[in-house]
Amino acid sequence: MSFLNKVVIVTGAANGIGRGVALEYVKSGAKVVLADVNEEQGVQTLAEIRKSWSEVQFLKTDVKKPDDIVELMNFTKQTYGTIDILINNAGKGLFKSPFDVTVEEWEDVIHTNLRSVFLCSREAAKVMKENEEGGSIVNIASTRAIMSEPNSEGYAATKGGIVALTHALAASFSNYRITVNAISPGWIETGEYSKLSSLDHEQHLSKRVGKPDDIARACLYLTAIENDFVTGVNLVVDGGMTRKMIYEE
Known about the structure:
15% strand; oxidoreductase; Sc_DH/Rdtase_CS; alpha/beta
């Protein structure tokens, strides 16, 4: 799988999963545009990557704002000439009692997590459909699309919506050689991995908690031109956690 000279946009790229995804594409030779609302961390990530790779840019982007999304796509096309791959990773949590969630909080998480995926995908596809080889879009959902804990309605609704939106877009964009897939990460540790307990790891069939590069490698698989037969899927990457039956002893 070669990504040499491929143009990749990663939203929410300043830290966590997005940062890990961006780094993996850089290692594979892609030209990468980092997009994030956190300018300070975005610039730090940019500076780190530029120590070894020049073909990377950062643009402060609030995916909740449609104008920022249009600017991101225009910036990328003007800088690198096209868009080959879009990773819709930006998002935020909303974990609060359903009795206390305000309309403003609900709309904030819906617009940030879900509406942005539609708008980013649509704007990127306008560019991708002009490419001879089309393009690839990956939407980062979550295992919370299929399982929940209390007080997670807003987050779960957006992640479930992303899964449904993914196969709908895959159908709509199929005539333009654009694949659209989702990844549902499970427990991906973006903090201090060494502080996890043995119990944390044992909850997984893989015997370990996930890392950002586990999701990054899944992105590479789904966006490789060799894998254009794969579209409309939701790839669960969770170390088997959602398949493991756990009983109290």
